[in-house]
Amino acid sequence: MKMKLGTMAVAGLMAASPVMADLVFPSLSYRTGPYAAGGIPFADGYADYFTLLNERDGGIGGVAARVLECETGYNTEKGVECYESTKGEGSLVYQPLSTGITYQLIPKTTADNIPMHTMGYGRTSAANGEVFSHTFNYPANYWNGASGAINYLMSQGDISGKKIALVYHNSAYGKEPIRTLEELSEKHGFELMLVAVDHPGQEQKSQWLQIRRERPDNVIMYGWGVMNQVAIQEAANIRYPMENFIGIWWSGSENDVLPAGDAANGYKALTFHGVGSDFPVFDDIQKYVVDAGKAAGAGDQVGTVLYNRGLYAAMLAAEAAKTAQVIHGVAEITPAMMRDGMEALEITEAKMTDLGLPGFGPSFKVSCGNHGGPGLIGMTQWDASAGTWSLISEFAATDMDVIQPLIDADSGSYASENGIEASCN
Amino acid sequence: MLYREAGDFSTTYPQDSQTFPIRFDRYRYYAVLLIAAIIMPFVMTDYLVNSIFLPFLIYAIAAIGLNILTGYCGQVSLGTGGFMAVGAYACYKLMTAFPDVSIFFHVILAGGITALVGTAFGLPSLRIKGFYLAVATLAAQFFLVWLFNKVSWFYNYSASGQINAPERTVFGIEVTGPNTEAWATYLFCLVFTVGAAILARNLTRGSVGRQWMAIRDMDIAAEIIGVNPLRAKLTAFAVSSFFVGVSGALFFAVYLGAVEVGEVFGINKSFLVLFMIIIGGLGSIFGAFAGSAFLVVLPVVLKIVGVDLMGWPTDIVAHFQLVIVGGLIIMFLILEPHGLAQLWRVAKEKLRLWPFPH
Fold first, then answer.
1. Residue B159 and residue A84: Cβ atoms within 8 Å?
2. Domain residues for A400?
3. Is position A146 within any domain?
4. A218, A305: one domain
């Protein structure tokens, strides 16, 4: 027995010691639990893109990429365990896909000098790179989302005097847009109604009864996981007009609308990247990843909204790694170099076309002062009969006059709480 | 051969009534303490401390607390998560309101505040018993989580409703915040865990503990022989909540650093701590440690074996983990209802006769 334990310990050490000559991209995924429906496609997209780079291009700058998956179950304690167990392997950038875990990791990653990318989630005020040196949330954040939804409604007609309800996941994530929407309601004169849904959101009868009674002109939803499907089903049950119902990008995937069937037709969701599989890169994924039997997970998620988001996150990470390789002139970059690469990242239309993703997302440039990107928001709509999401608006700018002061205030309070000097190195 | 009383003579009463009356057992205990306090800090890494030792030590305090209430006094509680949340939020409010006071006192005070809250929720226990009390404490669980989510004063009006532990030091060494050293957080929690265990051990074998056990075994009989049920039950709630509050404060401030109440201190936490004392052994301090170690270490071991050694997909391993932990709980309930502590007792008996059992 002792012998066995010894060999096991040695094997464990060998498994844990860093294997040189690859770029490690940890994926804190969740393929189990109440949020698995959203976690699986994202993790698949993230892993598949790196597989594609390895198979097609031989890695990033000649160095193979390795995706290190760790199951968090959307649980903060497991998230901590995953972070601690993967950070020693030279992990370049963390993408926890959970606002709760993000809050946990912001101080830790900063102390360990590892960057973190929270694309479209996490702490919104991390857009201020002078305070949050290692946290990035380009190309768009929750507050852009809130403003984008209001802008879209204003483009459809006058909203002053109207009543808009926010149905939100009663957690750090769902509470994020409240302040922005309150500011916007003052500015544009609409009435804001807050409806909280507790984790995990299986039961929403009372919330939708309230909506039925108060008849808001529009409903905006910040939901995730099973909460989305239930909300859309409940909205259909009270015959709430779907075209007046707008979800944030975390409430706009196939998983959310399919259970409600035809009743979900016309449901809208915000987005910050393209939808569908009508991009050249998907041919390569089919050829090098899926047909080669190397797809992550069950391989049945290609082209879904959240798969695309995982793919987009992986693409941005890979581009940042390339940028870092150029800046520092070495192929095997460290997390600190990766951070510099992320801060100097520039995405242009030409670059995206080269990658096989023309028009997939906005062109933007990250800087030390702005880790949040441009915040361009588009709107998608669900067509239940065709079973597809389609982009129904341009990627449009959001109201930074409202958002920027909020970012400055919130990051300022974080800086003073933690004694951080706002600076650009 | 081991754990033998032979040759051990007690010449005074204190000697006879000490926690470890057998010399071999006592030296083993000193050796464990010595290793834990002097050797372990030198081998601590970030990974070891954050994935195994901090959760183990902190859950052990919570399990000791719940064991006092459920194991010693017989009052079933499903409100552990809620009371841990009270400890965490009390600690947060104290840390931010009095930044110059040592975090050590904040943790103790957070335990004190939780004791008050626990006593208040313990009042119904005088009237209701068994399942009905479990439901009443369940109400406490949901009420407290709702309260900390709803009233923004508790999280200092932050936009997200999260609480974040600022950097605080003990003797100039950081124990909370991101820049802590592994050994510092480990030792800080170790002090509380050892303190809690010694305190609990001495309470449970004194007159207070005997009153609790009398109430547990038969409350009417206890009342007849002169045990005041009001006092016994409320002291059990107060002491239990104190420990649970301390563990909640450490859980937030030292271990996680950022907490969202619904996610971290939900009903799952209550069940987890309850499983710890059931698997470990009701009415045993050692059981609290054993149960906590079991439920903290087992998932980590399963993950290392499944993902790192066998290379299985992470979701399969996560599902297996649920199956295995669930199966073990059922197995324990059927095969050894008195938990790991009883196994240990049996093992000691066997060791005493070993290697000549006849």
1. no
2. 142-271+378-404
3. yes
4. no
Checking phi first, is residue A393 left (phi over 0); if not, alpha (psi -120 to 50) or beta?
A: beta
Which residues have C-beta within 8 Å of that of residue A40, sequence separation ≥ 6? A29, A31, A297, A301, B315
CA distance A398 to A31: 33
Number of domains in chain A: 2
Q: Are the CB atoms for B94 and B166 separated by under 8 Å? A: no
Residues A66 and A24 in one domain: yes
Q: For A129-154, how does the pLDDT look when each residue is reduced to its tens digit (9 = 90+)?
A: 999 999 999 889 999 999 999 999 99
* Residue A7 covered by a domain: no
Q: Looking at the structure, do residues A159 and A85 belong to the same domain, yes or no?
A: no
| The predicted structure's pLDDT at residue A11 | 44
Interface of A with B in 19-58 (CB under 8 A): 29, 31-32, 36, 40
| Residues of chain B falling short of pLDDT 50 | none
Helix (H), strand (E) at residue B195: helix B182-204
Indicate which of B314, B316, B321, B324 best probes the interface with A, i.e. most A CBs within 10 Å of its own CB: B314
Name the pairing type of β-strands A378-383 and B258-259: unpaired
Do A72 and A59 lie in one domain? The reply is yes
Same domain membership, residue A161 and residue A72: no
Domain assignment of residue A283, yes or no: yes
Instruction: Assess whether A226 and A168 both reside in one domain.
Output: yes
Which residues in chain B are contacts of A81 at CB distance < 8 A?
50-51, 300, 303
Instruction: Answer whether B41 touches A (CB < 8 Å).
Output: no
d(CA B286, CA B71): 12
**Shortest Cα–Cα distance, B261 to chain A (Å):** 8
- The string of pLDDT tens digits covering residues B117-148 is 999 999 988 888 888 999 999 999 999 999 99
Which residues 100-119 of A have a C-beta within 8 angstroms of B? 100, 103-104, 106-108, 110-111
Domains of chain B, by residue range, sit at 45-266
Residue A319: CATH number of its domain: 3.40.50.2300
Mean pLDDT of A301-316: 93
The pTM of this model reads: 0.90
Examine the domain organization and report whether A213 and A229 are in the same domain. Answer: yes
* Lookup result for tokens 């208040």: B120
B253-276 in b/e burial notation, b at 16+ Cβ within 10 A? Answer: bbbbbbbbbbbbbbbebbebbbbb
Mean predicted confidence (pLDDT) in A222-236? 92
Q: Give domain status of residue A5, yes or no.
A: no
Say which of B51, B161, B308 has its CB closest to residue A84: B51
Tens of pLDDT, residues A249-293? 999 999 899 999 999 999 999 999 989 888 999 999 999 999 999
